[in-house]
Specification:
single chain, about 625 residues, alpha/beta, seven-stranded mixed beta sheet, 17 helices, about 25% helix
Length: about 625
């Protein structure tokens, strides 16, 4: 476990040290029990464990000194500012996709459904409440099929999509049969047909993109085939579709193909699909399909199911003329050819194309190639009707950008971007060192909180993902990680995708593109050092509180002076915190802080004992 100099038998322990260590270990022991069922105050498991556990009688346990509680350095600071609950009408508030603000923007090209964040003076600086009766989501894999009505109290989709088998309302839960508009017989049957053309089974296909995902049943059923899909849909009249996806334990974000680039790097996804997503692929000179091409890896697959495929059968049902539907498919075919995509399959309602592995294997007329030097520099950048060039190759058989290992081997081998020297300052050696470091860090996290690695933490976010080491080490069928690469950090998101992980670009000075209560566990390593003097810590922490589920956990890793500032702020946010020494000992200035969000909801007694009213 520890070095000899740090072992309990190598030095005398002061009574104060023993008290702190035993208190901390008791805190996390009770924390684990308290979180198991997730019902917070009055939870029967936690109460029973509390009765049975005497935290003073643990002399047989061996705790290392790096579990010491680190006191706040400046004890003279005033009491933390207390943040009040927001009004109950904000239970599902999404700051950058708020409806009233959205409606002030043009509807053309879906501009009004893009990100429009509030100016500083309009930010809500209060705590977003959970809806009345909120309970911890079902554990995976049961959550794939069932969602508590109290957590997402919207029934409109059960009516609008009743025929399409999206979702059913039964008692106090929603049931998701696995259907979809284009797969009424179930996602499994649909995926089986795709797998007859696309090598889904052997690990060649690991990352996928679902444009206009609905309740993300495609992504939900791909998970058991070890394929990780990033699903997105706008916040629109299909109420709460992305919220349902996240509540089911499926990766999803609020997003739209409008006028700005998707927040993903080039050559990222092994597979992408549009299942009746109704995106006008041939509009704006084919700009939307060109954007899919940008994020699709050389050799990747694009699936189109729904209009205009099988137009001969459906054009009357779609209330379109035969000529119009036929012309749309011809235009898509011509555009695909310009993109160097080869059609591999068309049967019934499904068509599949494969992107060529490099430009040398492509025969096309002169096309408008994008002039941008960096195809990964996309945050708030306008899309143009141009084609992203393939990475250079030396032979017709070489895969542009580098061939990837099959998953899970690709998780730890050196990614092509690093092997080719495309990430400044990162070498194969430093990459392997980073992996080793994260294995060490996560061993410590698991000693602190034994629930890490269980289905208790299904939806996980890494706010400053770096090379993806955290997500690679915790990778499991029990959970998934949204790897966020801050827009002011080194751009490493392409490396993360090459490892078979998923992620997104984001600026933490703004709200994240998700609903409240999306994540069970948030990892924040170096986030606050990165954003010092960029924006207010308070705003970042309030956003973390918004997207964290009641009784969810945050693990901070940062410099001690920074964490002390953070700790003072969260003291007024209904979070319980403990600061812990770095695993290499108390002389390290980097520390770990663990926080647990208290359970409270509309109509319940909050962490400060006050009841929240309903509007």
């Amino acid at each position: 476990m520890g070095s000899k100099s740090n072992s309990p038998g190598s030095r005398a322990w002061s009574p104060v040290s023993i008290f702190i260590v035993l208190g901390l270990c008791c805190f996390f022991y009770l924390l684990g029990a308290w979180q198991k069922s997730g019902f917070g105050k009055g939870d029967s498991i936690a109460l029973e464990i509390t009765k049975q556990t005497d935290c003073n009688i643990i002399s047989t346990l061996d705790f290392e000194p790096h579990h010491n509680d680190v006191p706040v350095i400046d004890s003279l600071v005033p009491k933390a500012k207390e943040f009040k609950p927001c009004d109950a009408k904000y239970t599902d508030y999404t700051p950058c996709q708020e409806q009233n603000r959205a409606m002030t923007f043009p509807r053309e090209n879906m501009v009004y459904r893009e990100r429009h964040c509030p100016p500083d003076k309009e930010k809500l600086r209060c705590l977003i409440p959970a809806p009345k009766g909120y309970v911890t989501p079902f554990p995976w894999p049961r959550s794939r099929d069932y969602v508590h009505y109290a957590n997402v109290p919207y029934k409109s989709l059960t009516v609008e999509k009743a025929v399409q088998n999206w979702v059913q309302f039964q008692g106090n839960v929603f049931k998701f049969p696995g259907g979809g508009t284009m797969f009424p017989h179930g996602a499994d049957v649909y995926i089986d047909e795709l797998a007859s053309v696309i090598p889904i089974k052997d690990g060649s296909i690991r990352t996928a993109l679902d444009t206009g995902c609905g309740v993300a049943s495609w992504g939900a059923y791909l998970l058991k085939r070890n394929v990780l899909a990033m699903s997105f849909a706008p916040k629109d009249n299909h109420e709460a579709q992305v919220q349902f996806a996240l509540e089911r334990g499926v990766p999803a974000v609020i997003g739209v193909l409008g006028t700005i680039h998707l927040p993903y790097p080039s050559n990222a996804f092994d597979m992408a699909q549009c299942s009746r997503c109704l995106i006008p692929w041939t509009s704006n000179e084919g700009m939307y399909l060109m954007e899919v091409d940008r994020v699709l890896r050389p050799g990747g697959y694009w699936i189109l199911s729904g209009p205009p495929i099988n137009w001969k059968t459906y054009y009357k049902i779609w209330k379109r003329s035969k000529e119009d539907a036929k012309a749309e498919q011809i235009n898509i075919e011509e555009l695909a050819e310009l993109l160097c995509w080869e059609k591999k399959y068309e049967k019934g309602d499904i068509a599949i194309w494969r992107k060529k592995v490099n430009a040398k294997s492509c025969r096309r007329k002169s096309v408008n190639i994008c002039e941008a030097k960096d195809a990964d520099d996309v945050w708030y950048k306008k899309m143009e009707p141009c084609i992203t060039p393939f990475p250079e190759v030396t032979s017709a058989s070489e895969v542009a950008g580098g061939k990837l290992e099959k998953f899970p081997a690709r998780l730890f081998v050196v990614p092509p971007r690093i092997a080719e020297g495309s990430v400044p300052g990162i070498t194969a050696e430093s990459y392997q060192k980073d992996n080793k470091q994260w294995k060490k860090h996560i061993n410590v996290y698991k000693r602190i909180n034994t629930l890490i690695g269980t289905t208790r933490y299904r939806n996980i976010m890494d706010m400053n993902a770096g090379l993806g080491g955290f997500a690679a080490v915790v990778e499991s069928s029990k959970s998934w990680v949204m790897n966020v690469v801050p827009t002011i950090a080194q751009n490493t998101l392409g490396v993360i995708f090459e490892r078979g992980l998923i992620g997104i670009y984001h600026d933490w000075c703004e709200g994240f593109s998700t609903y409240p209560r999306s994540y069970d566990l948030i990892h924040a390593s170096g986030v606050f050092s990165l954003y010092q003097n960029k924006c207010e810590f308070e705003d970042i922490l309030l956003e973390m509180d918004r997207i964290l589920r009641p009784e969810g956990t945050v693990i901070f890793r940062d410099e001690v002076d920074v964490l002390n500032k953070v700790r003072k702020i969260v003291g007024g946010m209904r979070w319980d915190t403990k600061m812990i020494d770095h695993e290499d000992g108390p002389l390290e200035t980097e520390k770990i802080m663990v926080a647990v969000k208290q359970y409270w909801a509309v109509g319940s007694s909050g962490g400060n004992g006050t009841a929240l009213g309903e509007s």
